[in-house]
Design brief:
There is one protein chain. The chain has 133 residues and is of the alpha+beta class. The chain has a single domain, classed as Nuclear Transport Factor 2, Chain: A. It is built from 4 helices and 6 strands. It has a 6-stranded mixed β-sheet. It comes from Sphingobium limneticum. This is Nuclear transport factor 2 family protein. Pfam families: SnoaL_2.
């Protein structure tokens, strides 16, 4: 995977093209973060459809490195609420580990993301958030 490949992935994510995003993952890929398992196309689409019904989420890549086996990046995840997403709604959707956000509020998080790659497709993804800005 190279930067142009990853830019297509990030562009699809920012455009909410969940099928294209999911196609970058190998069958059986481990897509787990923040206590959420998104390892099936349905789970992936359900999670992001719910989340993006409440917020606009964008990824801005600041640093990028790749090899045949690994993609690593540092970037800013920006989340802007288009409607209130309160603790009760999050909990009702099994997402009580997420922070509530009010309509119009913006949260920015520095995120480090590592993808394991086999034959040009992601087999796992892991990420860490360093803090809100």
């Amino acid at each position: 995977m190279n930067r142009a490949d990853y830019d297509r992935y990030a562009h699809a994510f920012n455009d909410r093209d969940y099928d294209t995003v999911f196609d970058f993952y190998a069958p059986g890929a481990s897509i787990r973060f923040f206590g959420v398992d998104l390892g099936t196309r349905d789970a992936f689409k359900r999670f992001y459809s719910f989340l993006h019904a409440h917020v606009i989420e964008t990824l801005t890549i600041e640093r990028f490195a790749a090899s045949d086996e690994l993609v690593a990046l540092e970037g800013i995840i920006r989340v802007e609420a288009t409607q209130d997403l309160d603790a009760a709604t999050l909990a009702a959707n099994g997402l009580d580990q997420f922070m509530p956000i009010a309509k119009g509020e913006v949260q920015q998080m520095r995120q480090y993301i590592h993808y394991h790659v086999v034959d040009g497709r992601f087999t796992s993804v892991g990420c860490a958030i360093v803090g809100l800005t």
